[in-house]
Amino acid sequence: MKPNKLIVLLSIFLLLNSCVSMFIPEITESQDLLVVEGLITDQPGINTIKLSLSMPLGKRADAIPLGGCSVFLSDDFGNSYHLSENKTGIYVTDPSEFCGIIGRKYMLKIFTNSISSINYSYESLPMEMLPVPAIDSLYYERETIEEESEGIQLKEGCQIYLSTHDPADNCKYYKYDFIETWEITLPYQDVIYRTCWVSSDTNKIILKNTSILSENKITRLPLNFISNETDRLSLKYSMLANQYSLNEDEYIYWEKLQTVTQDVGNLYDIIPSSVPGNIFCVEDPAEKVLGFFSVSAKASKRIFIKDRFSGVFFPYSDLICQPVSTGGIIPGLGISAWMIIDGSSMRPPFRVYTYNQSCADCTTRGTNVEPLFWNDDK
């Protein structure tokens, strides 16, 4: 190869392998937009409104909680309810004074001087609380993930389904979420806490529209698939499913947000700030406000699963066995260890330690306080 050609090729190679810098496009909109997350229902208990400021594009951080605001709910009967701030940016109702009523319309009002130097106020559009039917059934079906074959163990999971119907045809738009709780028991006796319960909230948007169906009926809605790659199905599992009524505008909002958060996209796809909500700035209606003030009736149902499933993930391993004389320190590693087996009364005496605290203390993953509902299936 001629020297000149070699130099050209090397130059192209160096250019292609040079550092790539992040491209953050210039944007004209404010970088500290108000974000409102709130839901009020017809169920007893606390209702929460969360206020925060959005982060600039390109920042990898949570939104900044917005404290010091005055937050109110009002209805079409002339009632007004003040929400107290129990944590920075978290505003809650007094359950002894407020509970949503089906058929009434509610507005959210926010007063703050925390955004720039102007006292801004924000209001939501009036939102009617529509009725929601009861959940007819919540059930699961065992599913085979991988068939058993020579040298391969059968792997199973389960799919949880929901069915409901509204004979009065009052609710046509539905939203769902759920809370999972499962029991874990460490396989070792001499640990700090052996049995715990782990809980997890929904991490996806689940919607259903029956307005286009001939019958207001939902059958076999796939709510959640539990694979064998977690230990949720190892002992006992429970899910509390919640069903909410939506009006058409809110359904459209959540549908667009679903596209933003769950579809595979890129820089030039729809972005969250382009999803219009139902909250506006009184002083400057052109200002964008992110989020939605939700008003929904709520129906709930719980399921328990105690079946045994093949091939379920077992997370406890990486044990290190040391003599009694180590005193809880693993030689050569310079770190503390947690004892899981005490064989000091054996001959010869021994103890087994682990460098993974979760193998000796289940509270690193959950709570050792049994949930009040845990035995409701008995």
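The above is record 1. Record 2 follows with the same two-line structure.
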Amino acid sequence: MRVRDDVALGAVDAAAWNALAGDYPFLSHAFLTALHESGCASAESGWTPRYLTAWSGDALVGALPLYQKAHSYGEYVFDWGWADAYRRHGRRYYPKLVAAVPFTQVTGPRVLGDAATRRALVGAAVAQVESGRQSSFHALFVTEDAAAELERDGLILRRGVQFHWHNAGWSDFDGFLAAFSHDKRKKIRQDRRKLAERGVTFERKLGSALSARDWAFFHRCYVATYSAHQSTPYLTLDAFERIGAALGDRVVMVIGSHEGARIAAALDVTDGTTMWGRYWGALAYVPGLHFEACYYQAIEHCLEHGIARFEGGAQGAHKLARGLDPVTTYSAHAIGDPAFRDAIAAFCARERVDVAHTVDELMEARPFRRADA
């Protein structure tokens, strides 16, 4: 087996790559290619692809989607404080290596191949850190099993919190709400009723039914919401259209209208077992619009199609009251500088305790009736 650092994704056979990635849509050849060819994940944007691939003869047997980063934007595992500490001590934190799906804070595989191949690929990435070519290597939003494997290989584990909805076998949205305490159930029903009384309606469209007009409207909403928060959007209309073409009916778009005029849109992705909430935007503020477009519509879709889990995205304790549970997320880090490695390991150990306490406290605040908790 050989590990190579000179084979670009575009030079890899898509079928061979997808055989390793499996059903996970965010590491599919087409999804990653859409990010690259649109220029969103590129050297110009500070996401320089540095993929590692493993080969047995001419057969692809493993891969590590890896990026050299000149900043920490679009990662959602925040290490700005680490970078600032490096700067204050006269050292350089960038460039660094990141194993992640750009702009996508969803848990899933990051190193593809069997156990021996994964170890070889991670070892090749860490070797770049040890050589001084990169300050560090970061594998973001890895699974719990992968986190344990990376920790055994000597990486520092870091934990975070997200909010995920789990399908307990409810037959419909009313059945789901029946598990809530009276006050929480009443609040959600009131919010949904008020939206309807204001003339706000919603439709859900699968990827194959989406038109260029739909994508243009979605992107307009997306840009407007980033602008309202004084931020720069990561993805272009071209990227979204390419993603839509790549994923087909694994894309679900929620479109909200007010008295017939479109005012909001949310984008979700599913593999039939999990649904991931990705992006949303609105052209007007309506109370309750965000919760309906981003959470209730997605949960209803999951209930209608037997989808087991909905991942609601990064941050947001407000998701707890909507029936999403706190879950622990994992990332793993190899730090080249020995002094900083020790300091970061100590920080992550302290943070780990705080995260565990936070999850416990949030679980106690779930909106479900105690008999159903």
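The chain has a mean pLDDT of 95.
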